[in-house]
């Protein structure tokens, strides 16, 4: 039996709608600029040649209903609501026509972003890790099995303190779910436990301590988050 110098961190896992079993989280792949209107509001253009990605670590995972302390190192924390795809089977070099075979289910997520750090990284052509990958930066609803949900033109939205901030339809994504899975499988051996955050619509903006966020995709469990005091 292996011995550790200190106890390993417990695995990140998400609840599943209607089940006691939980979904263990492995990697979190995030799609950038997958809604044209959001790309425009950020002063960027959609790359029509191929999607692009950044990753979040499992330590970023929080469940819906959590309180997230306003994170250190930023004065401009932003919300981004997203449809999430949960992978449940090995996927490597798949064609788009076969990509959905790898999908286990779906959820709703919040990609929390230290926007000032992201802007600084962009200016210096540096990675986005400090902006995107921190404790509590990935907040997820309970997951819904694929047999109970088919992504089509469902509305996606986010309210902050009851005021609508983001509102669109998931059909507005530039790159479809099969295209994203097929493309990622060119570079990674995707497998059970991987999550794909499929991008955010326009309307992203700042949040402050005390704010309450509530968002969803029609047909899926909602995601909720409270912003706590600064650390």
TrEMBL record:
User: Pfam family example for this protein?
Assistant: FAA_hydrolase
One Gene Ontology MF term: metal ion binding
Q: Which parts of the sequence belong to the Fumarylacetoacetase-like C-terminal domain?
A: 28-224
Q: This protein's superkingdom?
A: Bacteria
Going by the UniProt record, its keywords in alphabetical order are: Metal-binding
Q: What is this protein called?
A: Fumarylacetoacetase
Species classification: Bacteria, Pseudomonadati, Pseudomonadota, Alphaproteobacteria, Rhodobacterales
